[in-house]
Amino acid sequence: MWYTDGMVLSDPGHALEFIGLAARFLSAALSAVSLETRNKQELLEITSLMLPIFRRNFSNGFNLKAEGIVKLMDLVSRQTVNSQMPWWSVPETMRAALGCYEIAHNDADRSFCMKAYSLCHNTFMNNYIVSDSPGLLAVQTRDENGAIIDSIPAVPDADPGYHTGLSLIDCLEMIDEQ
After folding, report:
1. How many other CB atoms are there within 10 angstroms of residue 104's CB atom?
2. Average model confidence (pLDDT) for the chain?
3. Banded model confidence at residue 133, pLDDT cuts 50, 70, 90
4. Is residue 1's pLDDT more than 60?
5. Where is pLDDT greater, at 63 or 37?
């Protein structure tokens, strides 16, 4: 998030990516037997912030009409600034939804997480995966109307370890753990 030209810009995809990583860490840390009471209280306090942050960024970023997570929005006007929808933010949001599900404390929150997960899963499978490509490759980027566009948002060579689809492996493990 940064301030420029009277706008407070936010990248919902990166915020959702962070939430997924943080929720995964919090779930693992809170299950540690040797966790001291003070540390557990601090982690629980952080945990209580994850779902509201997830909800806000999902609501800000998910383009329901074209199905995808927009690249950039202005938090002041609540308007999209960059409507491109890169592929990687959808599986990252799936991990965030499942991670928040793991730390949610009530059925309404868990239901929201499953709805977000389902929307992103279906979005990814129906709009980003090219079913007739070798290895079921994902298209890189789509526009606000859902059309595939010639824009490369991130590649593993320039962004090692991120935006590679590894979040999907976490999703499989998290589903298996349930």
Report:
1. 20
2. 90
3. confident
4. no
5. 63
pLDDT, mean of residues 132-138: 78
Across the beta sheet with 2-4, what order do the strands follow?
A: 2-4, 7-10, 72-74, 79-82
Please give, one letter per residue, the 3-state secondary structure of the chain: CEEECCEEEECHHHHHHHHHHHHHHHHHHHCCCCCCHHHHHHHHHHHHHHHHHHHHHHHHHEECCCCEECCEEECCCCEEEECCEECCHHHHHHHHHHHHHHHCCCHHHHHHHHHHHHHHHHHHHHHHECCCCCCCCECCEECCCCCECCCCCCCCCCCCCCCCCHHHHHHHHHHHHC
**Residue written as tokens 């298209």?**
139
State residue 60's pLDDT score: 96
Domain 2-177 fold is Glycosyltransferase (1.50.10)
Rounded to whole angstroms, the Cα distance separating 90 from 142 reads 12
What's the confidence (pLDDT) of residue 166? 80
Residue with tokens 């997960």: 117
Handedness of CA 109, 52, 25, 164 (dihedral sign): positive
Listed in sequence order, the residues at least 6 apart from 78 whose beta carbon sits closer than 8 Å to its beta carbon are 60
Give the pair of three-digit tokens for residue 141: 């980027």
